[in-house]
Amino acid sequence: xxxxxxxxxxxxxxxxxxxxxxxxxxxxxxxxxxxxxxxxxxxxxxxxxxxxxxxxxxxxxxxxxxxxxxxxxxxxxxxxxxxxxxxxxxxxxxxxxxxxxxxxxxxxxxxxxxxxxxxxxxxxxxxxxxxxxxxxxxxxxxxxxxxxxxxxxxxxxxxxxxxxxxxxxxxxxxxxxxxxxxxxxxxxxxxxxxxxxxxxxxxxxxxxxxxxxxxxxxxxxxxxxxxxxxxxxxxxxxxxxxxxxxxxxxxxxxxxxxxxxxxxxxxxxxxxxxxxxxxxxxxxx
Length: 285
Ligand code: ADP
Ligand code: MG
Description:
The chain is an alpha/beta fold.
């Protein structure tokens, strides 16, 4: 394509709410055959709320106290839910964030752990297992609260799928692209969300540091990979992908690591960007 055509393409992108880092990006956009979509904040709104608490009644107060020191969307949901239901939260000391797994800290003399079962690393009693499974079957995220080495409660947080995500996935398929859902969340919840938007290929329970390796592995298989994400934990994968697309509603780190920014955070812009690149480079299929 001529420099003029590329400039026109870039300008047209801006009108569609797609910010393109440089004209050369259109060429990699055109070659993409696989689109890896982060779940939370990309396919879903990423605004979570607390739905239920099963177990010890102190769990919400303790979990809220620890999560108050975290910036994760799950933490925001737990803190808001805890303040609403129990009021003021106690102090936390010795707070630690375990990336992609959860948080821990000391509250009122108890060693409190909040997060994935893998972090908590204690057996769950039957009623908590049942609460967790029921939540995950419906695409929600279950968080375990433990203290002093005993699992005490399961908190359930829910996010909603963006109203445009299903249509966006159908558009990608229409363009001949293979969609993949990638998340640190548990496999059952991930599959439920994937089913809601029409994705069959799900890679779940991936630690933030390993999202990059998932992209590399697909590239090693010969795929030309676009990665769409919003979070700090997506940045390395966005940079590794042949094409990185950040949600404009996401973190600055994700935007900086990407080639394209979808200003409105609407996934349909992924298909728009690919159509635009094919048209600009004269290869409409
Ligand atoms: P995603 O890939 O969907 O953006 P993350 O990698 O940030 O998710 O987190 C993966 C999982 O780790 C969450 O689904 C949750 O179970 C657990 N987790 C992470 N941070 C927290 C936290 N602050 N509180 C509770 N659980 C957490
Ligand atoms: Mg995310």
